[in-house]
Amino acid sequence: MPTLTIDGIEVTVPDKTNLIEAAKMVGAEIPHYCYHPGLSVAGNCRMCLVEIEKAPKLAIGCFTPCQEGMVVHTSTEKVLQARKDVLEFLLINHPLDCPVCDQAGECWLQIYYMKHGQYESRMMEDKIKKHKKATAIGPTVTLDQERCILCARCVRFCDEISKTSELGIFNRGNHAELDVFPGKELNNKYSGNVVDICPVGALTDRDFRFQCRVWYLDTQDSICPGCSRGCNIQVHYNLDRPHHAEGRRVLRLKPRFNPEVNKYWICDEGRYGYKFIDDESRILMPQVMRNGGMEFVSWDEALKASAEKIKASIPEELGVLASPQLTNEELYLIRKLFVEELGATQVEFRVPPKEEGYSDDYLVKADKNPNTKGAEEIGLAVGSAEEILKAAAEKKLSALVIFVHNLVNSGLDDSLVKAALEGVETLIFIGSNFSDTSEKANVILPSATYAEKSGTFANSEGRVQRIHEAVPPLGESLPEWQILNELARALGLDWDYQGTEHIFAELAKDVPAFANLTYEILGDQGQTLGYVPPAEEEALVEHGELEAVRAT
Amino acid sequence: MAVEFPPEVKREFDELVAKYEQTRAALLPVLHLAQREFGYISPEVEEYVAGLMELPPTKVHEVVTFYTLYHKTQPGKHVIRLCKTLSCHLLGAHTIKDHLCRKIGLENGHGTTPDGRFTLELVECLGACEFAPMMQVDERYYGPLTPEKIDEIIDGLTDEPVVENVDEG
């Protein structure tokens, strides 16, 4: 734990901390391109030069470990001049195409040039022409070689994180250029990350390119619903300029740092899995079967119709298929309403997938639901999906409520699904998008997607993490917790949940695994189930009981 | 061209690799071996070498494209390296070059002749300034060059590569 002085402020840092990270701790920003905390150190961009007292020349912050008694200056005249000079070198062959570059607004060449450059160009020679301009090098990424500053972050990412090594820097000197091997492409499960870490406009996202200028985007923290890993993400959306991107509001997802879950990365499956949010298949209004056809109705009418059908069923005739796509708050309300209040005995949330999902030993999990763990803890599994459908097919159910699932495209037997969906008298579908299953419903209640509501998911390791509303629910759709609240009221219950925090507080009291958790404790990085507050933990350690508590 | 070392070359490869602590360290000599064997280093050869050495093909391609002494395309039967550095330049290397290009039938001043007989590379100092202006044909140095001497050398070449190291005259 060396203690050093950076810009006159004394700081003690863990061993092996480099100067860039140490400077962050005292609030000093050392500009850099090639350094990335999630990758090995390359030290090739030379942007992070700092002055160290008693050292003969400037040193790069990324590759200089902190040492006892070091005195570092990050913004002396000498350092500022060095940055300016380095930028001048980096920009020698860089084109002046910012007006048409999709990176503009989040480009570190622009940002640092305005902060540290601002020199008069002395470049009289012609710029070196590179080979690939705006060339797709794989399904997700576009390469623009002349914009590249050869920091090699993407090369190291493909070597160290995705371990696929598709990218390299070929040729040398002025002619060096980033590329894929001749005839090959950049195609791996994590390829989109190279766009995030590219500090300039050399690698851009084919999906996002030219959809919207980044300064029109707003951001909201969330959790990827793509699998049970629960990667932390940021939802980037645009509400002010509906004429962009054909009116789509959510325009891209970006990974959000969480050292316990996904570090700096997300997989492509999750990154590009947001399309359903603004898809044409979204259900925008409640619908009820009348005179042999589905009719658009008001929420009041739809809820009344649902309540009547549910009320008319005795508990044994009521089936509920909840979903591990739902938040803990919603699953808790489903349990409370259908199991505790109505006494339903045919309740399940698991529906086997058509085929085993892709998984690897890094981030991607085979279970493509974000909240299976939460649903298990809340205790929703009273029956099994197959039993429920059998009962429906045998006309033993009078009402079946299905949340989210598309049974027709699942691992369940096709003929059983068909018989069940047609055999049940009343099928209430609550979901965000039309599917083969919603088509068979008598009542359709439109629900919000994860980007349009708040709540929590528990990932496969039991980490409970919050999602936040980024954009308002599309059309007349509502978050499931709100639908459940209204449905309970339509059934004559005295429910009045004002928000998900309200529900979560009740859930934390009721479900042992969630004990002690609050939204405040979850924060933006989440907290694991079975959480013991630090003060209590100390007491338990003293009495040697912590292990016993954890085991429960 | 089947990209695979014949057994005796594969043995040479194994010997080369055995000289180093890490397989990767043998990459440069292995690529020279491959160039000798296949004539030039095509992407297929890079992939073959990468497979043998358990490296990603991109890493081999990085090395091949970095160094000028690896041929990326099929060179002519004779590779001529004409020095363009100071001593040779002062003693008229540019007129020698013009004459040489006319003699071997090369229009744009570098690369391989249409008949595939010659490849001309303009190179930095080969360390034989006493011969200036000079050139290297395959493995042999020639100089000091005059247009007449160029004609004599080119006319005297067979289809076999020139092997001797230094021109004694």
The CATH top-level class label of the largest domain in chain A: Alpha Beta
Largest sheet of chain A: 7 strands, mixed
Strand content of chain A: 15-25%
> How many separate domains make up the residues of chain B?
2
Strand order within the widest beta sheet of chain B: 2-3-1-4-5
Most extensive protein-chain contact, per-chain counts: A-B, 14 and 11 residues
* Structural shape of chain B: elongated
Q: Which structural class should the secondary elements of chain B be placed in?
A: alpha+beta
Tally of contiguous helical segments of chain B: 7
How much of the polypeptide of chain B forms β-strand, as a percent range? Answer: 5-15%
Strand order of the largest sheet of chain A: 15-14-20-19-18-16-17
**Secondary structure: number of strands of chain B:** 5
- Report, as a whole number of angstroms, the end-to-end distance of chain B: 40 Å
CATH topology of the largest domain in chain A: Rossmann fold
Structure, explained:
The complex is a heterodimer of chains A (552) and B (169). By secondary structure, chain A is of the alpha+beta class. Helices cover 26% and strands 17% of the residues of chain A. Chain A has helices spanning 19-25, 77-90, 108-116, 153-160, 193-197, 268-271, 299-312, 328-341, 372-378, 385-393, 414-423, 480-490, 500-510, 519-522, 534-543, 546-551, and strands at 3-6, 9-12, 49-52, 59-60, 71-73, 135-136, 141-143, 167-170, 177-180, 203-205, 218-223, 232-237, 250-255, 287-290, 293-296, 318-321, 346-348, 399-403, 426-431, 443-446, 455-458, 463-467, 527-528. In chain A, helix 2 packs across helix 3 (108-116) and helix 7 (299-312) crosses helix 12 (480-490). With 169 residues, chain B is an alpha+beta fold. Chain B has seven helices and five strands; from the N terminus they run ααααβααββββα. Chain B has a five-stranded mixed beta sheet, covered by helices on one side. The A-B interface holds A 159, 165-172, 180-184 and B 43, 46-47, 56-59, 61-62, 65-66.
